[in-house]
Amino acid sequence: MKLVSITQEMGDDPMHVMMRQIMALFDEYQSKETAKHVLRAMRENARQGFWNSSLPPIGYRVVAAEQRGAKVKERLQIDPFNAETVRTIFRLALEGDGVSGSMGVKAIAARLNERSIRTRDGGRWGLGAVHQILTRTTYTGRHEFNRRGKDRKLKPKSEAVVVEAPPIIDQETFDAVQAHLQARNPKKVPPRVVSGPTLLTGLIHCAKCGGAMTIRTGKGGQYRYYAGSTKARQGPTACTGMTVPMEKLDDLIAKNLEDELLRPDRLETILSAVLDRRQEQTTRKRAYVARDAHIAACSYGQSGRCGWGTHSPRSIRPDARATPAGSLARPTLFRIELAYPSSAELRLPAFAILHPSLDRRS
């Protein structure tokens, strides 16, 4: 391959080869200088609390904050719809779905896909997207700009700039989820400890030497014992700890947990929280169903009075158009707001559908 320049005539003799190399060095230097100045300007923009025009994290959207000359400064704002998905992910990681306990990244992704909860772009959830949400400090109100380089390696903390953002998750919940993830991290805790069939694997240690208690078998696997690993490797002179039948110790631990955790007063508190959460989810689902039914009725052009009041569907639905399948496109030109009434007789939330031209706040 031969490089041909229109403005700079270059030959193939040694002098021209040297000139091309010198020019390439100057171009590389100029490129690095430009990148340095751009990064410095972006760091200063972040230090002032503005967003640097990249794709915001799921649960946020970018809004104009102020204008300086021809440039518009932007900040992060919570996106109510996607923010609820973020809260759901953290709740599943910490509390589970009310049936099982706290869930891992893979189980959370599977549960979201089963419930048809899609990503911001309408796709299915994967392990990487869920893990990124669970470990991102932005959701606690502290976004770190310039945290990684182009090679995705972590930079020194002194080079990162913290940008304040409206929090979606409180710090206590975030820290609890991080501890949960660390406890399930296969790089720190072997998978057999987390999901193995042995109840106390990795949890009990010898009182004499402090070594881990591991499983030992007898009579060809007929009997199973918890025994100190130090004694098993080095003999009784290294540790004089005792060997405990696995079934006996498991039953003792299980009975103690049952007596302490499954008391009637504690169960009442736990079940009340679960029922309240399920009632909240049921109310939210009913709200979504009612909203979709109302939108569908307006989309098909049913004039007169619908379940949510009297209005002219054409005046609030100018973008309704048929798709090839015969259905109607999803509405995009008006906003739907939820307003929960104080009346106890109305169980479903009321909706106000506003056309952009009539919405004074838009």
| SSE run | HEEHHHEEHHEEHEHHEEHEE
Using the 3D structure, state the CATH architecture of the largest domain. Alpha-Beta Complex
Low-confidence stretches: 307-362
- β-strand percent reads 15-25%
Q: What is the domain total for the residues?
A: 4
CATH structural fold name of the largest domain: Hect, E3 ligase catalytic domain fold
Radius of gyration: 31 Å
Helix-residue proportion? 40-55%
Distance between the termini: 56 Å
Look at the structure and give the mean pLDDT: 76
Query: Count of DSSP E strands?
Result: 11
The largest β sheet comes out as: 3 strands, antiparallel
Structural class, judged by helices and strands? alpha+beta
Write out the strand line-up for the largest beta sheet, numbering strands in chain order. Answer: 5-6-7
Number of helices: 10
Shape: flat
- Give the class-level CATH name of the largest domain: Alpha Beta
CATH superfamily of the largest domain: Putative Large Serine Recombinase, Chain B, Domain 2
Describe this structure in words.
With 362 residues, this protein is an alpha+beta fold. It has 4 domains: 41 residues; 106 residues, Putative Large Serine Recombinase, Chain B, Domain 2 (Hect, E3 ligase catalytic domain fold), CATH 3.90.1750; 66 residues, no CATH class; 90 residues, no CATH class. It has 10 helices and 11 strands. Strands 5-6-7 form a 3-stranded antiparallel beta sheet. The chain has a two-stranded antiparallel ribbon with strand order 1-2. A hairpin with a 2-residue loop joins strand 8 and strand 9. The longest helix has 36 residues. The C terminus is likely disordered.
